Automatic annotation (TrEMBL), chain A:
It is a single-pass membrane protein. Its main location: mitochondrion. It comes from the Eukaryota. Associates with components of the mitochondrial respiratory chain complex I. This is FAD-dependent oxidoreductase domain-containing protein 1.
Automatic annotation (TrEMBL), chain B:
This is Distal membrane-arm assembly complex protein 2 isoform X2. Gene3D superfamilies: Ribonuclease Inhibitor (3.80.10.10). Residues 26-47 are annotated as: Disordered. InterPro entries: LRR_dom_sf. It comes from the Eukaryota.
Length: 486, 316
């Protein structure tokens, strides 16, 4: 028995995953006699510091079929759909690497939590419609035995987009596209707007579009925890660490037209453990980049963008960190229970929060006044100068308000066209992207997760065709531009 | 590891000793059967001057505490030496109960799959109840299809200018209303029915619906309320009393129903502050009479309004 324990300690081969990654502690320590056994071994064997049976439960496994970099809502959604759509059950080993298990800087939990179908790109409308369907049936999708059902606190109050004279024609076109895809949106004139919402000042508003169903806001933390719980019950492994290196190999291949292409394949992911210099090389078949605002840095590690500018090799992933502020204020005379998520033509937005006349809101800064994304400090002067004046002009009751609190979060901002990047990279053939949604990632996460899982398992999109969201558009220059992004 | 080996050897030694004692007793019993029988009548268990054989016999029939101390250690760990546990395990019902639990625990994944299956069956039952009756809709029109749907669920329907149609206790109802193809449905009483988001499809086709009662419906939630806006031009009375899944977030989207004159939102357990919610809904729907919790309910009394304690000494 002594020899058997020594063998188990020295070579982790037979067990496949290593001693320590058994959930709930080591297999050998079932009756608490581990420390005595260790003392006995150390007294028998000569030498000083050698400890043959050490705990490695904090390290990721030595190999995993899919490594998902980033444990936010997009990463967990990809993990969920991979485990749900795999055939046969239990076929794929998935590892989610997240460096901050408190999610203190993650975009998911700092988000305002809105979901809408009022986009101009048809694929965005489809993604949002499926995500709303997912949220409505969340307790069928994410049910875990013996755990209480999830309550995401969905407020079906809808979005109200206001347009000035210039934007009215664009808004009408957008509503036509949205209705074609199945969204329930209605157009309102300023007269109808005043009847329905008497607290609005319709000066400067030519047209408004109001989402009647499937739009509103919910609690993103609940969705994240629900996904995490379900995904753990399906057998996905989590690791608290940071990806520091990709080990890959290249092949010079000829395309059908005869030109030579350098195809790269990632073989290993080096995961560095938090607050330590220790790292674990994880052998993998597929890497999913769902690192949110830091996806650009992860892509650089894989060598994406290392090449002469203007070529496909030299095209970087154009996702960068952008800081956005959200303010919470109290206004006792403010609009009542029926307040939707209102978006002004100037870009300022607000929504009701709870029953106590509290409101959440903010504004997207212009390119020139972009704040420094080095930290998550809030600039209160921004509220005074840029957010409050248009708010007070649109809703006269907001002239007297008191800011209760504020916070800042990151957008995974796609500087190319502010829409998501989904699918494999054309040259690094086993890296898949699920990032760059520039502020509407949360509301499209369930559908994007399913799309990436379909791409990984089948090789093509099956339910929603996201071919226009592939990486290659950055090289070919075809922008998928959205009008009306907050 | 080594303490276990020691325990193992100790236990096996003890078992050996018990076996040898048993063997010795059997041999002595064969030698002197009558003496043993006389000894049992004696009251003192280990009396002074009694026969060694009687003592050994009593030891076996009333095993000392030390035997019980060893058995639990072994039952908790591996079941390698099962013979000992079987010797000292208590007899009767407790053993049968433990073996059923053991049986179920050995088949953990089967039990889990069975529970999963039963849960899915429950969900599919509700789904089946809310299926749309497309063939009736095509043949008789939307009003009859909607009425049929409600009656099948166990609710009641009233066509314009007629009496209420209700199913009897066994769920049967007359099909006379099939000829009322052009008569709109005015009132629907779906109290206690298992109507859900999908089932509302049949109700939303009733364009002249004036009164809708959804009291105590277990599957009506905030999502369903957001779907009611197509009935805005005709709906005058809505009752949501006692629905366990409706919260103030769903009530916020009732402002589309601008024709509403009576709204009942009493006894909603999912609403966090019923009094405040009622005030906010009254403000949202100015021309509607709202029945709900009293606004003073849930208010904390201020210091000057504390109830006087007449039993204690009266303050100056």
């Amino acid at each position: 028995m002594l020899r058997r324990t020594l063998l188990l300690g020295l070579c982790r081969g037979p067990l496949g995953r290593g001693l320590g990654t058994h959930r709930g502690g080591s297999i050998l320590d079932r009756d608490g006699k581990m420390s005595e056994i260790k003392k006995k071994i150390q007294s028998i064997l000569p030498g000083g510091d050698w400890n043959p049976l050490y705990d490695t439960s904090y390290l990721p496994p030595e190999g995993s079929d899919v490594v998902i970099v980033g444990g936010g809502v997009l990463g967990l959604s990809v993990a969920y759909w991979l485990k749900k759509l795999e055939k046969p059950r239990g076929a794929i080993r998935v590892l989610v690497v997240e460096r901050d298990h408190t999610y203190s800087r993650a975009s998911t939990v700092l988000s305002v939590g809105g979901i809408r179908q009022q986009f101009s790109v048809p694929e965005n409308v489809q993604l949002s419609l499926f995500s709303v369907d997912f949220l409505r049936n969340i307790n069928e999708y994410l049910a875990v035995a013996d755990d209480p059902p999830l309550d995401i606190q969905f407020n079906p109050s809808g979005y109200l987009l206001l347009a000035s004279e210039k934007g009215a024609a664009i808004m009408e076109n957008n509503v036509k596209v949205q209705r074609q895809e199945g969204a329930k949106v209605c157009l309102m004139s300023p007269e109808q707007l005043r009847n329905k919402f008497p607290w609005i000042n319709t000066e400067g508003v030519a047209l408004a579009s109001y989402g009647m169903e499937h739009e509103g806001w919910f609690d993103p933390w609940c969705l994240l925890q629900g996904l995490r719980r379900k995904v753990q019950s399906m057998g996905v492994l989590f690791c608290r660490g940071e990806v520091t290196r990709f080990v890959s190999s290249s092949n010079l291949m000829k395309t059908a037209s005869g030109e030579e292409v350098n195809l790269k394949r990632i073989h290993e992911v080096h995961v560095k453990i938090d607050q330590s210099l220790e790292y674990q090389p994880v052998e993998c078949a597929i890497v999913v980049n769902a690192a949110g605002a830091w996806s650009g840095q992860v892509a650089e590690l894989a060598g994406i963008g290392n090449g002469p500018p203007g070529t496909l090799q030299g095209t970087k992933l154009p996702v960068e960190l952008r800081k956005r502020y959200v303010y919470l204020w109290h206004c006792p005379q403010g609009p009542g229970l029926e307040t939707p998520f209102v978006i002004d033509p100037s870009g300022t937005y607000f929504r009701r929060e709870g029953l106590g006349h509290n409101y959440l809101g903010g504004c997207s800064p212009t390119e020139e006044e972009e704040p420094d994304p080095g930290n998550l400090e809030v600039d209160h002067d921004f509220f005074q100068d840029r957010v409050w004046p248009p708010l007070a002009q649109r809703v006269p009751a907001f002239e007297t308000l008191k800011v209760r609190s504020a916070w800042a979060g990151y957008y995974d901002y796609n500087t190319f066209d502010q829409n998501g990047v989904v699918g494999p990279h054309p040259l690094v053939i086993n890296m898949y992207f699920a990032t760059g949604f520039s502020g509407h990632g949360l509301q499209q996460a369930p559908a994007v997760g399913r799309a990436v899982a379909e791409m990984v398992l089948e090789g093509h999109f099956q339910t929603i065709n996201l071919s226009s969201f592939l990486f290659s558009r950055f090289y070919s220059g075809e922008k998928v531009q959205e009008h009306n992004i907050i | 590891m080594s303490p276990q080996i020691e325990a193992c050897s100790a236990v096996s030694a003890f078992r050996v000793s018990v076996n040898t004692q048993e063997a010795r007793i059997k041999r002595q019993q064969k030698a002197s059967p009558t003496k043993a029988r006389d000894g049992i009548a004696d009251t003192h268990p280990l009396g002074v001057g009694k026969d060694r054989t009687l003592q050994a016999q009593r030891l076996l029939s009333h095993p000392p505490q030390s035997l019980h101390l060893v058995a639990p250690v072994w039952n908790g760990g591996t079941r390698g030496i099962g013979g000992l546990s079987r010797v000292v395990a208590p007899e009767g019902n407790q053993k049968k109960g433990r073996s059923l639990l053991q049986f179920l625990a050995d088949r953990f994944y089967d039990v889990e799959a069975l529970r999963d299956h039963l849960l899915r069956k429950q969900v599919s039952k509700v789904h089946q109840k809310n299926r749309p009756f497309n063939h009736i809709n095509q043949r008789y029109g939307p009003y009859v299809a909607g009425a049929y749907f409600i009656l099948k669920q166990g609710g009641a329907v009233r066509f314009q200018g007629r009496e209420w149609i209700r199913p009897n206790q066994r769920g049967h109802f007359s099909l006379d209303f099939l000829k009322l193809q052009a008569v709109p449905v005015e009132a629907v009483d779906a109290s206690g029915c298992a109507i859900n988001y999908q089932g509302l499809d049949s109700l939303l086709a009733l364009k002249e619906l004036q009164s809708l009662w959804l009291q105590r419906c277990p599957h009506v939630d905030d999502w369903c309320l957001s779907r009611l806006h197509p009935l805005a031009s005709s709906l005058q009375e809505l009752s949501l009393a006692g629905c366990p899944r409706v919260s103030e977030r769903g009530l916020a989207c009732l402002h589309h129903l601008w024709n509403l004159r009576r709204l009942d939102i009493s006894d909603l357990p999912a609403v966090s502050s019923p009094g405040l919610t009622r005030i906010l809904v009254e403000e949202m729907l100015p021309s509607c009479e709202v029945l709900g919790a009293d606004w003073a309910q849930g208010l904390k009394l201020g210091p000057e309004e504390q109830p006087r304690d007449t039993a204690g000494p009266t303050p100056a």
